[in-house]
Amino acid sequence: MRRICSISSLLNQGFVQRRVFNKYLINTIRPYSEDLSSPKPPGPLLQYWKLVEQGRLQHDPYQETVALALEKLLGRLEQYEKDMEGYHIKLAEWEKNRENERRRLLMEEAEKNQRGDLWTSVNKRRSELLERWAFRKKSEDIEPGVGKWVSYLNRERKLDSLVGRRPTAPPAPKGLYIYGNVGSGKTMLMDMFYSATDGIVKHRQRFHFHEAMLKINEAMHKLWKNQVEEKSIQSSISSWIMNLPFDMKAKEWLAAEERYKQEFQMKNILPAVADKFLVDRQAGEKGASILCFDEIQTVDVFAIVALSGILSRLLSTGTVLVSTSNRAPKDLNQDGMQREIFLKLVDKLEKHCEILLVGSEIDYRRQLAHRSIDKVHYFWPLDGTAQKEFEKMWCQVINQAGGEVTSSTVPVMFGRTLEVPKSCNGVARFTFEFLCGRPVGAADYIAVAKNHHTVFISDIPVMSMQIRDKARRFITLIDELYNHHCCLFCSAAASIDDLFQGTEEGTLFDIESFQFETETEGAKLRRDVLAEGSVSSVGAPAGITSMLSGQEEMFAFRRAVSRLIEMQTPLYLEGVRSLHPYFQRNPQNFGNHSYSTNTVQHQVS
């Protein structure tokens, strides 16, 4: 078999030593203890086999297949990076020549218009009646702006003949779409690949679904705001038009043509967002781009429209996508929302990605937890003894962090801020009600997670239908704390396994109905995208509610429980110092925090 031959070759070369693995050795989810600061990180396959050899992972054939595919993709990226560097040099030259030719054509048209004004003024009275008669009926059928539209398209055709069409990008290596059950190792494998691309690909980004959707919202909001205020348009006009040797009328015509061009391009807002969203290319930096996208979902109409527009643009322009999901692409949209747009998205994913299943039914996070030695990180129930132990742990961590406990604020997307009631050198403390009982959302939780390596959350209740919104926010909060690799301490009313079982009011329903809880929700921006941005008449803005099935509900529960369990385990906690953004921004604090924890959860008696 290909797998055996590939691994055998690595073993024969001395990269890995084979050993007999105990059947109780289990798989965790991320290569937490890897040294990611080395100049050339090992590839995903070697990372995987190193963890297997160390006894941190149990060999899993599905995971090995994905690791091997990621290793092959990594091997193709170095040449692709060089090819894309050459392509972007050609593209920059083409864009420069095209813009110069476009301005030359505009100036020629402006000069003709200026010469024609004299003839028009002399013959104005004579032609007035003739024009009225000739265009009386036609004008009724001509849509406003059609003249500018025809002029714009004719000019674009001329530019194609003068400069040539846009250079063709070199064929991109196929990315990977990795799907499977909760806890099967999808995120681990993707993160192994992402760490291995450091130093190979200049432009690389990793996003979780929540953060990606918020950034798309933010980018769209900025584009619309710029269009409304017309600041960028006016500055670009004044920079080259105002000094031309034409009269004011000709300059006004040029300004109107420039404005129409930008307005025309703004109608295609999602491609415009994609061009600036994931790859922030600085001057002179060219090359390939990689997008690692964790937990692709289509929870509502906006997600389908936005993902279709953004990913289609990125894949068409050479971005390599490596993504994870709980479902195969064709199964993402269980309720048939915006089917035509969704099918286009599926077609793009299947064309540009190899679809791979991590088919294990085992939640390896839970198995790892069962091997851990009891030590308190998750305190339950909410009685006096548990609370005392929780307070004791808070004091211990604060003493270790050093400094004074104060209140602070952290910046949030869309220009907002969030208050942190208690914080000290990257350690923060909140109540459940403060974080989940108010109208906050993923943007706030991302801000908390990015700015604090350790988070204490107290007074977590058992989730029920009565607090469904709070439960939904709590799941989003856990997602972001996990994605940013925070150390988490909790005091709760029940064990992790019982936290989402519901109460006498009944079990939870539709828990993963993700909605944007930001200041842009309900604004003209989102309604326009859904009502006008290539959305068919089938979907109406009033119907933007998630219609997730019971299976999606189970995914949400299982993911939250699985991640809460993993966040208490030694292997996860060992990686906080090397993987959390706080220590990457403040390497001088790297040695000031340690987490000697071997726990999943513990009931304080």
Automatic annotation (TrEMBL):
Q: Which Gene3D superfamilies match?
A: P-loop containing nucleotide triphosphate hydrolases
Which ranges form a coiled coil?
70-111
Pfam families (UniProt xref): AFG1_ATPase
Which SUPFAM superfamilies has this protein been placed in? P-loop containing nucleoside triphosphate hydrolases (SSF52540)
Q: GO terms for molecular function, please?
A: ATP binding; ATP hydrolysis activity
Q: Which family does it belong to?
A: Belongs to the AFG1 ATPase family.
Q: Per its UniProt record, what PANTHER family does this chain match?
A: AFG1-LIKE ATPASE, ATPASE N2B
The protein's name is Lactation elevated protein 1
Source species of the chain:
Hibiscus trionum (Flower of an hour)
Task: Give the organism's phylogenetic lineage.
Answer: Eukaryota, Viridiplantae, Streptophyta, Embryophyta, Tracheophyta
